[in-house]
Amino acid sequence: MNNDDAVQRDPSPHGVGRFPERFPGMGDGGPDLLAEVADLRRRIHRLERIMVAIFCLVTATVLVAGAVLPMYTDRDVDTGDQAWSVVSIAGSALSILVGAERPDTDSPGVQALFIAGFLGLNLIIVLLLLVVFPWAVIGRVSRNQVRFARIVVWLGLVGSVVPVLLSLVASGSTDSEAGWGGAVLFVGMAASLVIVLTTVRPRAAGDGAEVADGRWRSAGGGGSTSDGDRR
């Protein structure tokens, strides 16, 4: 039996499916190669997290811009033009709740729905910026966190349709002018959905990638068992 056959053969009954401490023909240089592979894996993971963080930052900027840009502008000769955005409508809704304003134009039911909708949309934007995007940068979170993130982003995407509709209605009216706030916000919500579906994933015990990475580190750090010790 030559030396190559002796190196390639694994006499351990548990050898099937295990990471070898030495590659065939590598001799004692195997652990060094495994350490380099483990370091490369860590570098790739770090680069991936940086790219996700940049994407989240750009998406957050789009969401904030969509929230503050006017959805439409009311034209009034007497009182002047009044621009309405998601943030300004939420602020007006809060003033109504505390009693600073008492509009007489809408019925109580429509008014309550309008207030709840825009306050909820602002809350969703805050949750995306402060909670969901940091989870996306982390990458793997609990299953409950994944479920929560998906619920938030889907509600935000559906809710962002309302500002778009208001802009479309304003574009066909002679008393108002459409703005870009609704469209920009919808784009930000769509990008947020992509982030959540592709980067926020459940963390599972014994995940294959984590186990493999641990084995690479163990082999590279000298913590593996030699063929002679197994025998």
Please name the defining characteristics of this protein:
single chain, 231 residues, mainly alpha, 3-stranded antiparallel beta sheet, two-stranded parallel sheet, 9 helices, 66% helix
In round numbers, the mean pLDDT is: 77
Query: Which structural category fits the helices and strands?
Result: mainly alpha
Ranges where pLDDT stays below 50 over 5 or more residues in a row are: 14-19, 208-217, 219-231
Number of helices, counting only DSSP H or I runs of 4 residues or more: 9
- What's the end-to-end separation, in Å? 19 Å
- Helix-strand string: HHEEHHEHHEHEHH
In percent terms, what proportion of residues is strand? Answer: 5-15%
What does the largest sheet look like?
Answer: 3 strands, antiparallel
Please state the CA-atom Rg, rounded to the nearest Å: 28 Å
Helix content: 55-70%
Please give the number of β-strands.
Answer: 5
Shape: elongated
Widest beta sheet: strand line-up: 2-1-4
Folded structure, characterized:
There is one protein chain. The protein has 231 residues and is mostly helical. Helix content is 66%, strand content 6%. A 3-stranded antiparallel sheet has the order 2-1-4. Helix 2 (30-68) packs antiparallel against helix 7 (181-199), helix 3 (86-97) crosses helix 4 (108-138) and helix 4 packs across helix 7 (181-199). The longest helix has 39 residues, at 30-68. The model is unreliable at 14-19, 208-217 and 219-231 (pLDDT under 50).
